[in-house]
Amino acid sequence: MQMPRRFSLLLVLSLAGAGPLSSQAPSARDVIGAYARLGAQSPWPGFKPDTIPLAIYDGDTTWLAGHPSPPAEFLPGPALSLFFVPGQHESVKANTAVPLGGVFTATLLLDRTRPVSAARWAATAIHEAFHVYQHAHHADWTGNEGELFTYPVAAETPQRLQRLETEAWRRAVTRGPAVCWARTALQYRQLRFGLLPVGAVTYERGSELNEGLATYVELRAAGLDSISFPASGYSPDEVRLRAYTVGPAIGRLLDQASPAWRETLERGPTRPLDDLLQAAVGPGERCRFTAHEEDSVRTLARADVQAVRSRRQALRDSVLSATGWRIEIVADSAFPLFPERFDPWNVVPVGDGMVVHRRFLRLAKDGLTAEVLDRTALTEPAGSHPLFNGIRRLLISGLPEAPIVEDRPGSLLVTAPGVRIEGRVAGVDRTANLIRIRAGP
Fold first, then answer.
1. Residue 6 pLDDT more than 50?
2. Rounded to whole angstroms, how far apart are CA atoms 199 and 208?
3. Per DSSP, what are the bridge partners of residue 363?
4. CA 32, 266, 260, 213: dihedral to nearest 10 degrees?
5. Strand partners, 327
6. φ and ψ at 78, to 5 degrees?
7. CA-CA distance, 44 to 26, in Å (whole number)?
8. Alpha helices in 321-441 (DSSP H)
9. Quick check: 254 and 169 in contact, CB under 8 A?
10. Contact (CB, 8 A) for 148 and 240
11. Are 55 and 62 in contact (CB under 8 A)?
């Protein structure tokens, strides 16, 4: 895809007015104006948010700002470089970055019921815009999301080391001494990484470069100095979530230990953030946990692993046994469906290769598409990987009403709240409360 040319969002500043930003329920136009203002002061070398288009869905309308060639369905808005389409545009399904009209665009879902300032929403949009920048300039700053599905969440020793490492990061950025606790965190990380598969280690480091740096940039744009660690720590299956905290924490430590680190990383070659920090702090004194603290963490880690197993089994059972109508798509393992898009925040591996999708999933196969939004679905794999060798079965359960089935010449359309299945099929069977679709060939 061609990346967006320079197209300044300062043209839409007037939308938010010249006064202070509202702290209560800002509009999409307030956020667009704040995005332009915050983006004028780049929080990362070479990154210019005002050159990156922004699409916002506010619950009623999708707004598009700064786009050099808006898709035809977008209508001219009340200011230059601002466009809109009624309702939720099909590309704006999450806070992310997507190709829109041939140009990568930051997207934002604006919840107007939350009393969050326009500037804070704009900083979130800058987070997503930074992903556009990463896509164009640093394609290797990323983690392979496929590793999440096989990450060893049931391993007790790595979880114990993860808790100690994370607490050391927290102390390093909140109470110090920073370098002393940073060395401790790096030591526990080295021990933990030695127990993990190479793919899991690469995923963590890539996610810290991807989501960790995007969060670091977001916090800088928002003018926030503190990094919030959850009081309860992270469970074994919160690998992706942890990168959003540990990544910016390492960035803040690098700010102190190696102030030019951003320029160094930007010039390349790419290096993991913990590698940069290890070089910056060097060998020396490490802080230590007390024996009581280590014993407590050992007990917590054991409970963490047991809780993950129980949660996943319960989730799997709830989907398989849900009352109500069910839709099932079955494909031949040799000709499976493939995931086009899914929400990595809301997927849960539940054993035997099965995955529960709790928010968004889109599957496709030879003219057949299945999309599930804001509804739970379960997939079964066609191969060794839970998703990326294809899907042989999709189950959507717990529907309160009968889906609408329309037979069309050469195709089928099945709709229900949050569900749309359309295209060519080999056949469809209907029973008391089940619609089973046989995918071709």
1. no
2. 14
3. 339, 370
4. 50
5. 396, 435
6. -80, 5
7. 26
8. none
9. no
10. yes
11. yes
Q: How far is Cα 60 from Cα 64, in angstroms, rounded to an integer?
A: 13
| Cα(208)–Cα(245) distance, integer angstroms | 9
Q: Give residue-wise pLDDT tens across range 367-415.
A: 899 999 999 999 999 999 999 899 999 999 999 999 999 988 878 999 9
Q: How far apart are CA 266 and CA 47, in angstroms?
A: 10
Which residue has 């990484």 as its token pair? 193
Which residue did the predictor score with more confidence, 342 or 14? 342
Residue 154, Cβ neighbours under 10 Å: how many?
A: 15
Q: Which residue reads 């288009």 in tokens? A: 53
Residues 6+ apart with CB under 8 A from 141: 134, 206, 209, 210, 213, 270
Residue 292 has, within 13 A of its CA and on its CB side, a CA count of 0
pLDDT in tens, 48-106: 998 999 999 999 999 999 999 999 999 999 887 899 999 999 999 889 999 999 999 99
Residue 426: DSSP 8-state? S
Instruction: For residue 218, give both structure tokens.
Output: 């977001």
CA torsion 13-121-241-42 (nearest 10°) is 30
Report how far residue 441's alpha carbon sits from residue 424's, in angstroms, rounded to the nearest whole number: 9
